[in-house]
Every structure is written in C-alpha cells, then in structure tokens.
C-alpha cells in the first residue's frame, strides 16, 4: 500500500465541523467537501510556507502506477506556527499521509486536518 | 452638485440621530478608563449569523444575498478588507491598544487594522470606506462603538449577508472577566433589512501570543469574481 493513493471517504461530519474553525484562513470552507474525509499518501515535492495558506505538494501514485500531483492546503503560517509547525517541518522527499477534505470540483486538492509523517508523528492545526 | 451636497448632509444628519453622541451621552469624558488591551482570540467561529436562515431581508437585501457565493465572490477571496462587523468575527488573533484619543485593533487577517476614534462625533465629510468611521466612548466598563460611513463592498458574515452604504453598527465591547472579552453587536441597514438584528462574539485572552504578519496576497490561489 505504500505510495498508493488512498481515498478513504469517512463520514466524520461532526468531528470535522468541530475542527472547522481551527484551520480558517481568508475564506470559508465552501470550496471543500466537508462531509467526508479524504486520505492521501505520497512523496513531498515542495512546501510553500506562505500566506494566506501554506501548501504541501505531493506526488501520489494511483492504483495504475501513475503519478498524480496533489496539493494540500494548510492554514495561515501564524496559526501553524502556534500549532508547532516550522518552515522546514515538511521537506521534499518526505513520505507523508495527509488527511482532510477534498475540493468539491474534484481537483486533487485537500484542505488539511492532519499530517502523519513516516515516523508516526502527527501534526494538526490545533494550537496547544 | 449642490443638490447632492444637501442630500449628503441630510443623510449625515439622519445617521447622526442614531449615534450616542447626538443623544448627548458623550458630554462628559469618563475619568476611569477600563483596560481591554491584549491579544484576543474568538472562542467560536460563527461563519453565518443566521445558520438556519431567517435574516430579516428587504427585497434589495435578499436579491444581494442570492448573488453571494462564498466560492466565487466573497471579498476575502480577493484579500479585501473584512469590514465591520466581520473584522470582529475573524477566527485569528487580534490585539487591542488603547490611547486617549484612539482604540486601535490590529489583527491577523486580510484587514490588519481598525481605528476607533474616542470622544468625537462622526465626521461630516465622510465618504464610503470598507471600515467606515468608528467613534467610541466608555459607558462604565463597556466601550460603545458607533460605526457608519461604509461602502457596500463587504459582507457582514462569511455566509454572504449583504449590506448597503446605509449600514450602521453599534458595538458594546466589555471584559466579562480577566480572560474573557465580549462584543455585542447591533446591525441595522434600512435598505437591506426590515429591522435591526444582533450578534455576539466572545474572545479569550491569549497571553504570550503576538500578532504575526499575514500578507494575504503573497500566495493567494483563489480568484475573486466580485466588484
């Protein structure tokens, strides 16, 4: 399963709604399907430590062995920093799993709720 | 041109009639000034003031609301200012500073600063702006802020509640306890709504937090299809 594209719709509406405010940046969640969770596993190709959103770019191998280019939208860097993120938290070549909500229009973009690193370490946008 | 000026002056007078200053409540400056300074963060993000519908729209307001689409024409998608009162609802931290003539709020968000002028009346030469003209005075432990002079380019909430240039906002901001701030907001706009309505935003003090730079246009991948 390693490097495989995992699309696991999970009905977790209540959980996600409870977290909905935490990753707020400059817009509402209208562009994303907040009714189900999507999980994507892949290799990091880039990390934008920027506002109004930070972005992780991922190469994800799909079921046919082809590479899909995904991006993971995070919150503002101010709030990420408060949640323990640094500008080098994610590096090219890292194997990560991103959990979040996919764009409604089907683009390979998710609004993140959680990142799981190969070590098992997890980072969210929740401020401690 | 002259007629326009007369109409504008009449409108300004009419708006002033709603203001605390015009009711003579601002005559004496309060000697004890409460302290509401500090970094505050909303406790709960409320994207929509009417999550179940039922906003008291007039036809003009309802038509504008139907045009609002958070995916395409939310002014925030273009990194435009939140305006008032939405500025107070953003779930990112804000810091309040107090000076004798001004209460200044800086925040992380698309709009970085708000000024509240203390102990003066609304200017009579206002032109429409995103944040309008905010004047404040202390009533006991409460900062009462009266704001007019808006343009019609902002949304009242993240759900697209519209407003016209006739928007009038009165806020009562007070510290419930050392760690808790509350803003009770009265919103009226006779062009968009049949009657005033209210909102409340609660904040928690965040000791040790500092307001961080947020340059919204740095890497904004969204496109704003508004005016």
How would you characterize this protein structure?
The complex is a heterodimer of chains A (128) and B (227). With 128 residues, chain A is mainly β. In chain A, 10% of the residues lie in helices and 38% in strands. Chain A has helices spanning 13-19, 77-82; strands at 10-11, 36-48, 55-61, 67-73, 95-102, 109-117, 122-124. Chain A is globular. Chain B is 11% helix and 29% strand. Chain B is built from two helices and nine strands. Chain B is mainly β and 227 residues long. Chain B has a single domain, classed as Beta Barrel (Lipocalin). In chain B, strand 2 and strand 3 (102-107) form a beta hairpin. In chain B, strands 1-2-3-4-5-6-7-8-9 form a nine-stranded mixed barrel. Classes of the chains: A mainly beta (128), B mainly beta (227). Chain A binds chain B through residues 20-21, 24, 26-31, 48, 50-53, 55, 76-79, 81-82, and chain B through 42, 44-45, 47, 69-71, 74, 76-77, 79, 90-93, 108-110, 158-159, 209, 211-216, 218-222.
Our measurement of the CA-to-CA distance between the termini of chain A, rounded to an integer number of angstroms, reads: 33 Å
Classified in CATH, the superfamily of chain B is Calycin beta-barrel core domain
Number of domains of chain A: 1
Would you give the CATH topology of chain B?
Answer: Lipocalin
How many runs of DSSP E, i.e. beta strands of chain A?
Answer: 7
Count of runs of 4 or more consecutive helical residues of chain A: 2
Question: Which overall shape of chain B is indicated by the principal axes computed on the Cα atoms?
Answer: globular
Helix percent of chain A reads 10-25%
The protein's oligomeric status is: heterodimer
DSSP E strands of chain B, number? 9
Beta-strand content estimate of chain B: 25-35%
List segments of chain B where confidence is low: pLDDT < 50 over at least 5 consecutive residues: 1-27
């Amino acid at each position: 399963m390693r490097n495989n594209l995992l699309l696991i719709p999970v009905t977790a509406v209540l959980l996600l709604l409870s977290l909905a405010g935490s990753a707020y940046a400059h817009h509402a969640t209208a562009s994303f399907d907040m009714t189900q969770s999507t999980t994507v596993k892949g290799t990091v190709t880039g990390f934008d430590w920027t506002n109004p959103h930070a972005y992780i770019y991922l190469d994800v191998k799909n079921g046919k062995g082809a590479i899909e280019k995904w991006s993971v939208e995070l919150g503002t860097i101010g709030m990420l920093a408060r949640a323990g993120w640094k500008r080098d938290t994610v590096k090219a070549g890292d194997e990560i799993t991103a959990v979040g909500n996919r764009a409604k229009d089907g683009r390979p973009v998710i609004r993140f709720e959680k990142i799981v690193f190969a070590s098992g370490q997890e980072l969210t946008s929740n401020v401690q | 041109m002259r007629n326009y000026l007369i109409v504008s002056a009449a409108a300004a007078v009419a708006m002033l009639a709603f203001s605390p200053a015009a009711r003579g409540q601002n005559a004496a400056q309060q000697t004890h000034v409460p302290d509401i300074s500090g970094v505050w963060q909303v406790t709960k993000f409320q994207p929509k003031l009417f999550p179940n519908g039922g906003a008291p729209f007039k036809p003009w307001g309802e038509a504008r609301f139907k045009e609002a689409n958070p995916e395409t024409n939310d002014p925030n998608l273009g990194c435009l200012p939140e305006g008032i009162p939405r500025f107070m609802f953003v779930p990112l931290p804000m810091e309040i500073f107090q000076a004798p003539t001004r209460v200044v709020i800086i925040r992380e968000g698309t709009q970085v600063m708000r000024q509240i002028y203390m102990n003066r009346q609304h200017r009579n030469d206002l032109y429409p702006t995103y944040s309008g003209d905010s004047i404040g005075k202390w009533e006991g432990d409460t900062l009462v802020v009266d704001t007019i002079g808006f343009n019609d380019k902002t949304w009242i909430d993240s759900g697209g509640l519209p407003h016209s240039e006739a928007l009038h906002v009165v806020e009562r901001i007070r510290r419930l306890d050392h760690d808790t701030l509350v803003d009770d907001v009265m919103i009226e706009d006779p062009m968009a709504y049949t009657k005033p309505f209210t909102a409340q935003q609660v904040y928690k003090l965040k000791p040790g937090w500092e307001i961080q730079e947020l340059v919204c246009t740095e890497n904004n991948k969204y496109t704003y299809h508004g005016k």
